[in-house]
Amino acid sequence: MARSDLLLGIDVGTTGCKALLIDAEDGGPVADATREHPLDTPRPMWAEQDPERWWDGACAVVREVLARAGAEPRGVAAVGLTGQMHGLVLLDGAGAALRPAILWNDQRTAAQCAEITRRVGEARVLELTGNPVLTGFTAPKIAWVRQHEPAIYQRAAHVLLPKDFVRYRLTGQLAADVSDASGTSLFDVGRRRWSEDMLAALDLPRAWLPDVFESAEIAGRITGPAAERCGLLPGTPVVAGAGDQAAQAIGGGILREGDVAVTLGTSGVVFAACDSYRVEPRGRLHAFCHAAPGAWHLMGVMLSAGGSLRWFRDALGAEERARAAALQRDVYDVLLAPVVDVPAGCEGLLFLPYLTGERTPHADPAARGVFFGLTLRHGKGHLARAVLEGVAYGLRDGLELTRGLGIDARQIHLSGGGAASPLWRQILADVFDRPLALLEINQGAAYGAALLAGVGAGAFRDAADAAERCVRISQVVSPGANVAEYQRGYERFAALYPALAPHFARIETT
Predict the structure, then answer these.
(1) Is the pLDDT assigned to residue 4 strictly greater than 80?
(2) Which of 244, 364, 397, 430 is catalytic?
């Protein structure tokens, strides 16, 4: 039987595209589909993708999810978009991509960040945008293209963010939302509009930038050619959507001040909702517009959270991968099995998870991963547990900064792929010394995008109504017996980066 009254969320992620259909009445998931796409690393610390892969992937997963749900195109009431933030998509006047997109985790722009900060002034940048200029953000990527690829720069006519490129293909409209625009270094976050002062300081034309909408506002409708390609109905409304973290917060009910979430994905995120605009004095937390109108959020980002465990699997887990394949078991279950016999604190071993540089609280593209304190006593189980604990300590850095601004959660919502590990969940609860709430629906940013589509379509009054009706907690993990041990471990962890930072800088320059 064909479904009706459905909401569609599309997530344009770093590793692939995802489509999720939910019921517009109760928010229950109906069907989902994913399609991987590759990540290109043409040089060390660079990360790029062809935007056309996103469009191909989005069309493929939309068709697949409709088929899985047995849904007719007319049953989709609205579409919401989300995806990886900060990526630079440069289009020419005809709307064609001029080069591969430079992604959020690309670290090539340290010199451009320094130059923009010097030109505008560190304090003035924080005043205008609420954030320092970081290598992951969009403006320094534009400056890099201007300096290193002048022929491409001269042909540029439009700047888009990744999910907004897919919107352009779906609707023909050049648009962005306030949450995603907040991570460009070109947006006045407090006033929720492009910063004319930053554009003037960087000599960038306002005409390059799309119109900006609140996240649940309708920003376009599916065109006839796009409908033929992706299987949706022409005229279906597409809301502005949100950057992946703001969308995931909507899907997790993180809307009011005091609501805090931690996402344990490839990157790690601490997300704290705010009822008013505020800025961390040294810019160590992102200050972004939330996907709910009149709200903001503070966000700490570590670049290699689940990515650190994946690195450990790929670099040191060949034996475990083979054993998992032979036993038809999940490789992480096999890889982490010895960890339960390793005591909390790993008998003095620490891991710094800075495998691709770091952002919070150390905005340092030169930072590197470190195992510190190795002895003959330590084996592979110690190394694996140190990775889990090091990521937890790095996330606590972000929580400590939000506490410093007066936001402290009694309970933290946990999501992301790493949340599937009971061991890692307990380590996090102990390191944070806070209960962790797991959500009944753990569909990531695509779920929040679908809820925003529901607000735009009138299925929900607003984001708070959507969260009240649809977000449910399935389990709470309480802190255990290792809180004191992890407090001591965190203090050692926090002292390690300042001691090693000068040496990281020398590695970068030699």
Answers:
(1) no
(2) 244
